[in-house]
């Protein structure tokens, strides 16, 4: 029998708990790392190790851990009314107020909110509403969806097909025949080079070509993230989102912007769309909406979509999309308090104030022999490790450099995301101080130095 509580948890986890986007056998072999508590930017594991979290959980705990006012808001709501259905025209005050605040704060094209439990079901809801919308308009052939290679739009049965990452398709029979991907506007690795205008022009052309190939009369919508998070923190040039939005409008297809990561101060403003004056037809969000303190997501839509759906349903027929926990009052109460912290609590302002320190720390590491590219917008960023800087040659995946980095980082008490292709993703909380950034970059530099000393890594760089 396992002796300690930790050993018992590892054994039970191995036997019973399926982890998201994980190789089951590799996870069983490695065993779970149990996290126990958190305060501010720091986590503590079950062995008492204090870890600096440079990824805000999974780019969601934008407020940092242990925010007492959020705990109070949740506790009070739980005591008063832990659940209120949104069905049969019932509702609750926090959900109604949160919807109204989001409409006030989001791009002004977005007037209506449907709440979900996270990002995947927000994307799923968006897809379903778009399908309904075109049927309502009497354009039932407009059913094709376009998104970006390396884009991530969650893992619902439909949304995972819009996701442009092979592991979400493999053995899941995706993408469907109605789901298409165009190349990512990836500045570091782009056939047109690194010139911003050329990258934007090529991306717009790729969208035009795909729509022409399918026929605009058959295309429903283009889905994209303002910054491609799970695909490796790909930061398109400033102006890309606006150019894409203008193209969608011109081509008569809907634009659905997926701000699940970029929303709620991650890139500076509350939403990334704001920075480019983009007014999408739909927007999905989650993560920072409740800062991870409870599950909640949302899809927002324009009045044109809402009204067309309303009219097609007529006076009697329900629009058949719903979930028991849509507009959950405890999650909504948390969302309201989190929004207050972003604004009155000064978190958005702090995020903007410390961004230059984050940018400088990443850029300084460009001098490191392993680092081929450093990029960020606001408090989301990445380092791309390469075996050869000049040719941008990647490490052989068989070397599992990402695993070596994650292990070294953990030994150095630092948590971030090491993607498969040796891209290291960072998303520090908006509450980070300058001193916490000093610590982050000190530990990160040490981690990279240790990985550089590994004989297999040295050999691959020759
Ligand atoms: C852009 C984007 N869309 C959708 C999702 C899916 O959200 P969730 O994991 O809450 O289902 C994610 C999650 O990382 C995301 O980054």
UniProtKB/TrEMBL annotation:
<keyword id="KW-0808">Transferase</keyword>
<dbReference type="GO" id="GO:0008483">
    <property type="term" value="F:transaminase activity"/>
</dbReference>
<dbReference type="InterPro" id="IPR015424">
    <property type="entry name" value="PyrdxlP-dep_Trfase"/>
</dbReference>
<dbReference type="InterPro" id="IPR049704">
    <property type="entry name" value="Aminotrans_3_PPA_site"/>
</dbReference>
<keyword id="KW-0614">Plasmid</keyword>
<dbReference type="InterPro" id="IPR005814">
    <property type="entry name" value="Aminotrans_3"/>
</dbReference>
<keyword id="KW-0032">Aminotransferase</keyword>
<dbReference type="InterPro" id="IPR015422">
    <property type="entry name" value="PyrdxlP-dep_Trfase_small"/>
</dbReference>
<protein>
    <submittedName>
        <fullName>Aspartate aminotransferase family protein</fullName>
    </submittedName>
</protein>
<comment type="similarity">
    <text>Belongs to the class-III pyridoxal-phosphate-dependent aminotransferase family.</text>
</comment>
<dbReference type="GO" id="GO:0005829">
    <property type="term" value="C:cytosol"/>
</dbReference>
<keyword id="KW-0663">Pyridoxal phosphate</keyword>
<dbReference type="InterPro" id="IPR015421">
    <property type="entry name" value="PyrdxlP-dep_Trfase_major"/>
</dbReference>
<dbReference type="GO" id="GO:0030170">
    <property type="term" value="F:pyridoxal phosphate binding"/>
</dbReference>
<dbReference type="Pfam" id="PF00202">
    <property type="entry name" value="Aminotran_3"/>
</dbReference>
């Amino acid at each position: 029998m396992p002796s300690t509580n930790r050993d018992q948890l590892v054994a039970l986890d191995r036997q019973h708990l399926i982890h998201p986007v994980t190789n089951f056998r590799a996870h069983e072999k490695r065993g779970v790392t149990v996290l126990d508590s958190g305060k501010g930017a720091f986590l503590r594991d079950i062995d008492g190790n204090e870890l600096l979290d440079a990824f805000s959980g999974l780019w969601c705990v934008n407020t940092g851990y242990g925010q007492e006012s959020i705990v109070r808001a949740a506790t009070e709501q739980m005591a008063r009314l832990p659940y209120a259905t949104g069905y049969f025209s019932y509702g609750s005050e926090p959900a109604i107020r949160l919807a109204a605040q989001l409409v006030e704060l989001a791009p002004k094209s977005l007037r209506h909110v449907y709440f979900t439990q996270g990002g995947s079901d927000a994307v799923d809801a968006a897809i379903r509403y778009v399908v309904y919308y075109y049927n309502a308009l009497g354009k039932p052939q407009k059913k094709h969806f376009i998104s970006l290679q390396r884009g991530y739009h969650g893992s619902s049965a439909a949304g995972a097909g819009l996701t442009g990452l092979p592991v979400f398709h493999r053995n899941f029979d995706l993408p469907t025949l109605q789901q298409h991907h165009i190349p990512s506007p990836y500045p570091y690795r782009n056939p047109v080079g690194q010139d911003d205008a050329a990258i934007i022009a090529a991306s717009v052309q790729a969208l035009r070509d795909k729509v022409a190939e399918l026929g605009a009369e058959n295309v429903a919508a283009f889905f994209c993230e303002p910054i491609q998070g799970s695909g490796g923190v790909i930061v398109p040039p400033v102006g890309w989102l606006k150019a894409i939005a203008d193209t969608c409008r011109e081509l008569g297809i809907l634009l659905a912007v997926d701000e699940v990561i970029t929303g709620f101060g991650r890139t500076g403003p509350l939403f990334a769309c704001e920075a480019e004056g983009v007014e999408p037809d739909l927007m999905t969000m989650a993560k920072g909406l409740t800062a991870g303190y409870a599950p909640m997501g949302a899809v927002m839509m324009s009045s044109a979509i809402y009204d067309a759906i309303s009219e097609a349903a007529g006076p009697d027929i329900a629009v058949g999309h719903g979930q028991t926990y849509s507009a959950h009052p405890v999650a909504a109460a948390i969302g309201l308090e989190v929004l207050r912290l972003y604004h009155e609590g000064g978190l958005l302002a702090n995020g903007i104030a410390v961004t230059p320190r984050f940018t400088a720390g990443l850029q300084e590491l460009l001098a490191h022999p392993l680092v081929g590219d450093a990029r960020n917008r606001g408090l989301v960023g990445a380092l791309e490790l390469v075996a050869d800087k000049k040719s941008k040659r990647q490490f052989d995946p068989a070397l599992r450099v990402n695993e070596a980095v994650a292990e070294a980082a953990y030994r150095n008490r630092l948590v971030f995301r090491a993607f498969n292709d040796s891209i290291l993703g960072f998303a520090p909380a908006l509450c980070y101080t300058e001193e916490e950034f000093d610590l982050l970059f000190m530990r990160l530099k040490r981690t990279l130095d240790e990985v550089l000393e590994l004989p297999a890594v040295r050999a691959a760089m020759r």
